Amino acid sequence: MLEFNNYYIQDQKNLTDLFTNIFVIIDDIYNEIIPITVSNRRNIKDSKLSDSEIITISIVGELLTIDSEKAFFSLLKREYKNLFPKIGDRTRFNRTKRNLYWVISKIREHISLFMQSYSNNIRIVDSMPIPVCEFGRAHFSKCFKGEASYGRCPSKKQTYFGFKFHALTTIDGFLSDYIITPANVDDRNAVWDLCDKYKSISIIGDKGYVNKRLTPELKVEKDINLLFLKRGNSKDNYPKDIRQLIFKARRRIETSFSQLAEQLNLNKVKSKSMLGFITRTSIKVLAHNISFLINKLMGNEDSISKIKRLVFG
Fold it and tell me: Which residue intervals define the domain Transposase DDE in the entry (predicted)?
């Protein structure tokens, strides 16, 4: 693993510095963990951009909250041609990006492994809807047939067509793990996949994860404690300090999900293929996580989760 503890990140004064910092991290991880069969694949010398440049551009585009890829490409060619003089056309860029899904996932896992080494054994679990089209058009839509499904969003009291994003975060909001399921998958069923690699941790959820079988089974099979706020009049309620911890943790993951939805547009993934969808989602999560990493490397421990401040100052 890269020695991030001794890593140098320059102060960010403008968007060029953000591009540079992200590229340096991505490229160093890429060169360390990606096998030569991928990095030196056939026709790679004909590419106008390196894999690291493509991933960097994609990350910055998500962080800038620009929902339109066409608008972002126009901005790049107009304002940052000096950084990417050979950027080429958007269609080829997107095709290459989709083919880099495995690479993107491995880089995200590498960053996650480093960041989790500083966290405790508490995780927070939640889910959020990702509609793929307007509800009224779902019946006529040809996209994601057989992959997406109808689901219910209790917080908005709405039925939607699409997928569901399930995630675990650390206590400070870093997205350690996530999976994507059809919208009709129960949150409690997704917990097993989310915590597959974990043992002897505590997971804090909301009342949607209450289940008479799930809690004891997690404890017996994986020594995982599933905690959630109980009703105020519950006879076996937690002590006050535990209730306060659970409430504070729930607020933290709500903030992370708000960042994903409002800044990174996670619930507006504009893709027409499943590979495009999961690649774009993976880039958004990587953008969220690399912001935490940069804040940490810059010594911004007190504002490690402040993504907007990092990007916009």
Answer: 119-270
Q: How many residues does the structure list for the chain?
A: 313
The structure tokens listed for 109 are 């896992």
Q: Are 27 and 59 in contact (CB under 8 A)?
A: no
Tell how strand 175-182 and strand 158-169 pair up. Answer: antiparallel
Cβ–Cβ under 8 Å, residues 134 and 161 = no
Pick from 300, 280, 292: which is nearest to 130 by CA?
280
SS3 state of residue 270 = coil
SS3 304: coil
Q: Are strands 158-169 and 149-153 parallel, antiparallel or unpaired?
A: antiparallel
Asked if 88 contacts 77 with a C-beta cutoff of 8 angstroms, the reply is no
Q: Could you tell me how far CA 174 lies from the centroid of its own chain?
A: 9
Residue 152 bridge partners (DSSP):
159
Number of helices (H), then strands (E), belonging to the chain: the values are 11, 6
pTM confidence score: 0.92
Q: Where are the beta strands (DSSP E) in 27-121?
A: none
Domain residue ranges in the chain = 121-271
Distance CA 52, CA 49 (A): 8
Q: Which of 265, 313, 279 is nearest to 71 (CA)?
A: 265
Dist. CA 100–CA 107, nearest whole Å? 11
For 305, the 3-state DSSP assignment is: coil
Radius of gyration of the chain (CA): 20
Tokens of 229: 């706020």
Q: Which amino acid is at 38?
A: V
Beta strands in the chain (DSSP E): 122-131, 149-153, 158-169, 175-182, 202-205, 225-228
At a CB cut-off of 8 Å and minimum separation 6, what does 285 contact? 108, 175, 178, 260
The token pair that represents 146 in the structure block = 């057989």
Tell me the average pLDDT across 15-26: 93
The predicted-structure confidence for 250-298, as pLDDT tens digits, reads as follows 888 999 999 999 999 998 888 889 999 999 999 999 999 999 999 988 8
